[in-house]
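Title: Comparing notes on inverse folding

I've been comparing how different people in this forum approach sequence design from structure. To keep things fair, I'm posting one structure and asking everyone to reply with a full sequence. Here's the target:
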């Protein structure tokens, strides 16, 4: 069975009603990165940062996977599939994908602010209890913080993601401009000759040497077209 690795970015979830961060009218327009997504912001005003992610959780629980998410999950009928996502939502899992690597953390989880990656102090929130309250603490006594990789912090799962890409027979990229590092560099880990497909409605310039075939459509329409191609070729 061939292995497919699917690398997804913010454009994957746009059809589910979740705003991207960088596009016009995206979240960064109203919430500057420096206030909500850096370690310095957390140190300066943890309550403000937690309130921002409390708000995002409420948006996420109201969202549903779109057809693109469902079609990615459906690939598991014919292929071994790993999803590597830059997104912090859990829509891939909700759609049925069983092997998902989160590069930038998970919005529905909270963790220790002293020992972020220690699973003993991580907790998954669910409706209706979606808020981290002011002063709420993790099991080690430190303030609870979002289980999100802030700007300037290391990406713990990047090595795992690179290993997955290096063993792929097919690489699919959906909804990312390929300018956000370190995730953008993952393409270079694909073996020579591995087909690389890019689904994005906007023209994407890629400065690397690989021949990337683009389907210039949104996630759902693009995945519908690509699924037909891949199931015929297998």
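Reply #1:
Here's my take.
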């Amino acid at each position: 069975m061939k292995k497919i690795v699917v690398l997804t970015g913010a454009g994957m979830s746009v059809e589910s009603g979740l705003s991207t961060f960088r596009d016009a009218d995206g979240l960064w327009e109203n919430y500057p990165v420096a206030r909500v997504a850096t370690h310095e912001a957390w140190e300066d005003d943890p309550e403000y940062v937690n309130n921002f992610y409390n708000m995002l959780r409420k948006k996420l629980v109201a969202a549903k996977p779109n057809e693109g998410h469902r079609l990615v999950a459906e690939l598991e009928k014919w292929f071994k599939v790993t999803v590597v996502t830059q997104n912090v939502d859990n829509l891939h899992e909700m759609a049925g994908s069983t092997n998902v690597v989160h590069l930038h953390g998970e919005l529905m989880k909270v963790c220790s602010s002293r020992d972020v990656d220690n699973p003993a102090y991580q907790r998954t929130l669910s409706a209706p209890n979606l808020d981290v309250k002011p002063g709420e603490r993790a099991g080690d006594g430190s303030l609870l913080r979002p289980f999100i990789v802030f700007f300037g912090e290391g990406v713990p799962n990047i090595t795992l993601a690179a290993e997955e890409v290096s063993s792929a027979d097919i690489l699919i990229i959906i909804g990312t401009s390929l300018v956000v590092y370190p995730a953008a560099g993952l393409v270079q880990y694909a073996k020579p000759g591995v087909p690389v497909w890019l689904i994005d409605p906007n023209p994407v310039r890629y400065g690397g040497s690989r021949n990337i075939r683009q389907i210039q459509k949104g996630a759902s329409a693009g995945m519908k077209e690509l699924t037909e191609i891949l199931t015929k070729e297998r």
